Amino acid sequence: MEAAGSGERRRDLGPLFVGTIFVGSFLLFLVQPMIARMALPRLGGAPAVWNSAMLVYQALLLGGYAYAHGLARLNVRTQSVVHLILLAAAALLLPIGLIGRTPSATASPAFWVLWLLLLSIGPLFFAVAAQAPLIQRWYAAATGGRDPYPLYAASNLGSFTGLLSYPLLVEPRLPLAEQSALWTGGYVLLVVLTLACAAVLPRAGLDTSDAGYTAEAPPTLRRRLWWIALAAVPSGLMLSTTTYLTTDIVAIPLMWVIPLGLYLLSFTLAFGQRSVVALICRLSPLILVAMGGFEVQNSPRMPFFTAGVELALLFAVAVTLHAQMYGTRPAPIYLTGFYLCMSIGGALGGLFSGLIAPLVFDWTYEHPLLILAAAALVPQAFLFDWTERLWNNRRRAALLTVLMLVLTIAIAAVAIEQPWRWMWGHATWIGAGAIGVLTFFCIGKRVPFLIGLAGMILVFGGYDAIRLSLTPNARFRSYFGVYTIRDEGDTRTLAHGTTSHGLQILTPGRERELTSYYSPSSGVGQAMLLLPEIAGPQARVGAVGLGTGTLACYTRPGQDWRFYEIDPTIAHIARETGKFTYLARCNPDAKIVIGDARLSLAGAPTSSLDFLVLDAFSSDAIPMHLLTREAFAIYGRVLAPHGMLLVHISNRFLDLEPVVAAAARDGGWLAAEYDDAVPPGSPDYRYLSASNWVLMTRDPAVLGEVMAGAPPDGAWRPLQPDPGFAGWSDDYATILPLVKVFR
């Protein structure tokens, strides 16, 4: 009876351990976007900051798992004492926040993100990161050897919940100080739950986690390397999918949440629902054939469909490879080593996509490479008996592999060159489809399958990407993104992902014409033309965001111009490549201040500018720290009393008017908006882009003069604040109310 009661007591421990591991993972992924949001005013708003932050988190996760693996040498009672001491020591850093140091305006974000986050939350993140493997180990010991691995599904469900909770629930409702207090309360709850788990461990500290398991030899080196490879590819693919989607497909705000969320859910599925997982694993080669070719399309015609394909492929690959890890898991006594290998793989995948690839490649080549790596790792099984018989003979299989290589090269060459007129406009689909059919019958045989998938990727955009990379000064990549220069007829464009950042007319005599968002009829153009009358012949002009340097052609003799540009690569493109000649032709002496504009302007003298243009958005991503109440206070201090601030708010996905209107209301600005629509039938339609500009000033006479000078077919509209929108500050900001789909 005593043994039966003991067994019943042990079975009841499940909710306690599940709850503990859930809370720890929830806190872990709640703090990631929270601390990144806190860092925005110091580090700038580059989209790549998130990838750098992910590298920090993966490194700390690796450290936490290594610590848990080291503790496994001790008995579980001693483990609990050591870990509770660590949790108590880390609690001395509560509430969470950033260290006091602020980087200089010219400091590299790639460096500062790493050090700022490590020093700010490193110990707390490290301590919480160790929870998942430790709690599973303790669960096995406390229950007499019950399988602890399903608890990892609860861990990743907690991670997924924490990840979504921040942008959907926490950020829209709480300022940063209250967010920090919320996390502190969660940490206290975690310590209490961990203490409760430690209290039910075997009193003698004996590890009974292998009771009921047959003796198992330690995992071999080959098996550990296999775990590392299976973990590295989904981790790298998650980051490369995020980069590719936000660079080349659709720069929707919060897009980074979706790939990471699917990545976390894949663990929950792989470590839990076996029947569904078995089906996904069986179909994964077919999914790669059906979807893999779409993965390198540049600016596709159906961006949302392509994004859906990308995300579905990521999820299928992650579930399949994580399921293979789960299927080869060791006995619980080796559990911490298993998770350490998983963490090493995750860190290596993140290191490749987040740090190495941007330095080595000029485009997101890491994405197709990781897809091919996934294809090399997914399980292969023949779909039909006759294909298995066809490939079963070794000599015949070798001949068929060579034939597959030859046919793939031939079809790809025809699809790329398009020698026949009937193929024009359809060659990509015809070629990729033909290779796809051949690859379909290769499922079950890894090498010819990889050949076919590589051929599809080459036809569906890979060749164009390589050709552009081989063209001198046509593509550049930096920490901040991928920039592509293209000549189309009599124009040359600069694009950051899918968003144009400047256009120049190549026709001799027209190189100085103002194009894109900056024409004389645009809001900024009208204000620029009136600047000599308002500020005199020696006006001081600043522009946040350089682009191709188009605005420089508004320069008048005697004016002093400076551009604030965060990315040295953009300065190189605009000034040194010769691809765009606005600066060289119109203002070769303009100063270019490299670094985050807000930090640079914070150090500028009071009333040192008469005119300031704010046009620094990367693709359609929004650097929040440039649009907060505190940021507008900096602009107001730097501008002279009669100064003008022009804010570019054109955006495909967000309505930024309420943000600027709230800043104007709170800062005592007068503001008006001008929508510059470009009729499709106008002569210059190919050269101009519709734009939305907001003029802000504290001088009523200046606002009146600009509004009175509007062209006959347009008018400035006074900016009215939205009563239900509080505005953005360094302590509080959310984009959810601004998403155009929801408005």
List keywords for this structure.
alpha/beta, eight-stranded mixed β-sheet, 743 residues, single chain, four-stranded antiparallel β-sheet, 12 strands, 56% helix
List the helices and strands and how they pair.
Layout: H1 2-11, H2 14-43, H3 48-71, H4 76-90, H5 109-129, H6 131-142, H7 151-173, H8 176-199, H9 221-249, H10 257-270, H11 274-291, H12 303-327, H13 335-360, H14 366-377, H15 385-392, H16 394-417, H17 427-440, H18 446-470, E1 475-478, E2 481-488, E3 491-496, E4 499-505, H19 523-535, E5 540-544, E6 560-565, H20 568-575, H21 582-586, E7 591-594, H22 597-602, E8 609-614, H23 629-638, E9 639-648, H24 657-667, E10 670-676, E11 691-697, H25 700-708, E12 717-718
> Count of helical segments?
25
What is the average of the pLDDT values? 86
Shape: globular
What helical percentage do the residues reach? 55-70%
Query: What is the strand content?
Result: 5-15%
Radius of gyration: 29 Å
Number-wise, the strands total 12
Low-confidence stretches: 1-9, 208-214
Main pleated-sheet profile: 8 strands, mixed
Strand order of the largest sheet: 7-6-5-8-9-11-10-12
Q: What is the end-to-end distance?
A: 64 Å
The class by helix and strand makeup works out as alpha/beta
Describe this structure in words.
By secondary structure, the protein is of the alpha/beta class. Helices cover 56% and strands 10% of the residues. It has 25 helices and twelve strands. The strands form two sheets. It has an eight-stranded mixed sheet, sandwiched between helices. A four-stranded antiparallel sheet has the order 1-2-3-4, with no helix packed on it. Helix 14 (366-377) runs antiparallel to helix 18 (446-470). The protein is globular, with a radius of gyration of 29 Å. Mean pLDDT is 86; it is low at 1-9 and 208-214.
